[in-house]
Amino acid sequence: MLEPISPTSVFKCLADETRVRMTLLIAAEGELCVCELTTALEDSQPKISRHLAQLRSCGLLEDQRRGQWVYYRLHPQLPEWVQQMLKVVVQANQSWLAVNSEKLLNMRNRPERPSLCG
């Protein structure tokens, strides 16, 4: 992130249901790849990738390639207020995300990843 993130930029970036759902799922899971998001949201890979690019460009997400997979996570330099806001929104909206979380949980051939704690 080159510039400090502002409330206006955060809310503009999240002013789309797909981007909000993606961001909250990533916040809840720690990281997700495109195939996981296409499954959870039942959307096409090009649409998911376009939204991920927007979330990256506004500084909310960062990506990391590991083998054939590209994983997305919250940008580690997000201000504390953004991290706290996302945490509260995830906790307060479990039922809103339940269908997406269930699809993710039931996904077959989900990519393996090492523990985020390791």
UniProtKB/TrEMBL annotation:
Record's keyword annotation contains Transferase: no
Keywords: Arsenical resistance, DNA-binding, Transcription, Transcription regulation
Domain HTH arsR-type: 1-93
One Pfam family cited in the UniProt record for this chain: HTH_5
Transmembrane regions listed in the UniProt entry: none
Claim: Repeat is one of the keywords in the record: no
InterPro entries: ArsR-like_HTH, HTH_ArsR_DNA-bd_dom, HTH_MetalResp_TranReg, WH-like_DNA-bd_sf, WH_DNA-bd_sf
Protein name as catalogued: Metalloregulator ArsR/SmtB family transcription factor
Species assigned in the record: Halopseudomonas formosensis
